[in-house]
């Protein structure tokens, strides 16, 4: 009989949480596949491509597709940084606990305040877009504000009911949404590419005159939102860390899978619609502001269009579901440390389903209120959602910056997922990419309309300003005694415990 080398030891989920100062109170019923499905349906290529297809082409022409490659590569670097962080800190809440443990409570509070509002606004906008699909599916008027409001509220309540049922149902519906997304973006995209192509591939190198008399570089950078709006949602994999089996190893993989599969899906979909468009010049010139229905009618016919609408509505429901779940876990994590008004109520977990029900109620109610406000004054939809993407990128980069700060101070991530000596390089490049993306998002437009040109910055200033005011007056960071800035100490503790476990295995 030959001797076999002992398997490397690692901390159990209970032991890992104990090092971080928490008890294992949630059901770990979410698999790697379900965790990936959660992030993917949050990222939702259908939502991203459908929402910005016409805008991207009218601003940057067909070459705007290259933003999918650029932003996908940048966000993959960010996901690698997040992977090392979550591997050491596999706890609920994502951005908040990561920023707190890497820097301090005040820093984390501001990052999370902006992030919470960005997610809540995103829930509202996704439900609104989904309501348009649902209205078309059931033969209702998608241009009627009251119809859209009622369907939006229905989608929010449906997602809340599924979330209330527990993590298993969240994972199941997320997997259904994943399949709907894959069929809707990859399946349909491939069909359009292979059988309904009306334009040549060379069109992706043709600006088709969008630059006018100016430089095409300005038009190309103006179309950056095509990718920037698409590639976030992968962080939701970490928001539910305490409900995932072996999260320190699985969540980093799920986040990277979300970026890679989401990027490929969006690419197939975007390219398929461009190449199948019967009148691409009309879309580029802005004459056809909602071209996807006409493309579908001319390629798959009325029945195919109806099938696509069913798939799209399923994907939107799953996306709202995932967004609610991520927002509720973030609120719960924030409240668990006493950092929000009503933190005792918000941090309660259902004994039956073991989900943060009160936080879920907030994650449904506030978007519903915003939907009613938009119904009263539809013009507010743009200023309400304008800051969302920039807010999320700001929150992302707060973690990337804090991670680099700790590395400079000597931190070497101790989770089972590690980039090794490449960690610093990846961290620096991810930060540079993030700052570039934030510049593109915050850069004022040039329409001459002050409100339209500065709406993104105005939204961010309002949210950040209110957060700073509350933080200065109420000092919620003083209420909490949650650990902060302990990345180096925790890494040493994890390595010491892992070494002891390895010695036992070797003995």
Automatic annotation (TrEMBL):
Its main location: membrane. GO terms for cellular component: membrane. The chain crosses the membrane at residues 32-53, 65-86, 107-127, 147-164, 176-195, 215-234, 254-276, 307-334, 355-376, 382-404, 424-442, 454-473. The keyword Transport applies. It is a multi-pass membrane protein. It is found in: Membrane. Gene3D superfamilies: Amino acid/polyamine transporter I. InterPro entries: AA/rel_permease1. Keywords: Membrane, Transmembrane, Transmembrane helix, Transport. This is Amino acid permease. The keyword Transport applies. GO terms for molecular function: transmembrane transporter activity. It comes from the Bacteria.
């Amino acid at each position: 009989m030959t001797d076999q080398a002992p398997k490397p030891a690692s901390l159990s989920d209970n032991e890992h949480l104990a090092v971080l100062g928490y008890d294992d109170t949630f059901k770990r019923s979410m698999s790697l596949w379900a965790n990936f499905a959660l992030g993917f349906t949050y990222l939702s290529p259908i939502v991203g491509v459908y929402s910005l297809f016409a805008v991207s082409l009218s601003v940057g022409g067909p070459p705007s597709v290259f933003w999918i490659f650029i932003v996908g590569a940048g966000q993959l670097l960010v996901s690698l940084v997040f992977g090392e962080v979550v591997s050491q800190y596999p706890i609920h809440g994502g951005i908040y606990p990561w920023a707190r443990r890497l820097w301090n409570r005040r820093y984390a509070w501001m990052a999370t305040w902006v992030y919470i509002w960005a997610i809540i606004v995103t829930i509202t906008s996704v439900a609104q877009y989904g309501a348009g699909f649902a209205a078309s599916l059931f033969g209702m008027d998608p241009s009627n504000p009251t119809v859209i409001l009622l369907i939006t509220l229905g989608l929010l309540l449906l997602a809340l009911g599924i979330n209330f049922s527990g993590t298993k149902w969240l994972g199941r519906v997320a997997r259904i949404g994943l399949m709907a997304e894959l069929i809707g973006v990859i399946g349909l995209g491939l069909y359009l590419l292979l059988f309904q192509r009306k334009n040549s591939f060379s069109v992706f190198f043709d600006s088709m005159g969008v630059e006018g008399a100016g430089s095409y570089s300005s038009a190309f950078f103006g179309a950056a939102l095509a990718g920037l709006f698409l590639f976030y949602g992968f962080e939701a994999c970490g928001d539910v860390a305490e409900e995932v089996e072996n999260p320190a190893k699985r969540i980093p993989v799920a986040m990277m899978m979300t970026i890679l599969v989401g990027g490929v899906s969006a690419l197939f979909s975007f390219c398929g619609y461009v190449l199948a468009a019967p009148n691409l010049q009309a879309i580029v010139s802005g004459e056809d502001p909602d071209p996807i229905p006409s493309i579908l009618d001319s390629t798959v016919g009325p029945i195919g269009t109806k099938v696509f609408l069913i798939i799209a509505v399923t994907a939107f429901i799953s996306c709202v579901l995932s967004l609610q779940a991520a927002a509720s876990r973030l609120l719960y994590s924030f409240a668990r440390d006493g950092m929000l008004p009503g933190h005792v109520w918000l941090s309660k977990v259902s004994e039956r389903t073991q989900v943060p029900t009160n936080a879920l109620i907030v994650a449904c109610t506030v978007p519903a209120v915003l939907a009613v406000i938009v119904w009263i004054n539809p013009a507010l939809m743009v200023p309400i959602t304008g800051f969302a993407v920039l807010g999320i990128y700001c929150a992302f980069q707060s973690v990337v910056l804090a991670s680099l700060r700790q590395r400079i101070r000597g931190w070497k991530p101790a989770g089972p997922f590690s980039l090794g000596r490449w960690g610093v390089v990846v961290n620096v490049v991810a930060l540079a990419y993030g700052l570039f993306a934030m510049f593109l998002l915050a850069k004022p437009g040039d329409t001459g309309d002050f409100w339209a040109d500065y709406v993104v910055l105005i939204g961010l200033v309002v949210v950040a300003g209110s957060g700073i005011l509350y933080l200065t007056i109420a000092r919620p960071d003083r209420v909490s005694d949650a650990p902060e800035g302990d990345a180096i100490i925790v890494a040493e503790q994890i390595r010491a415990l892992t070494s002891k476990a390895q010695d036992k295995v070797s003995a």
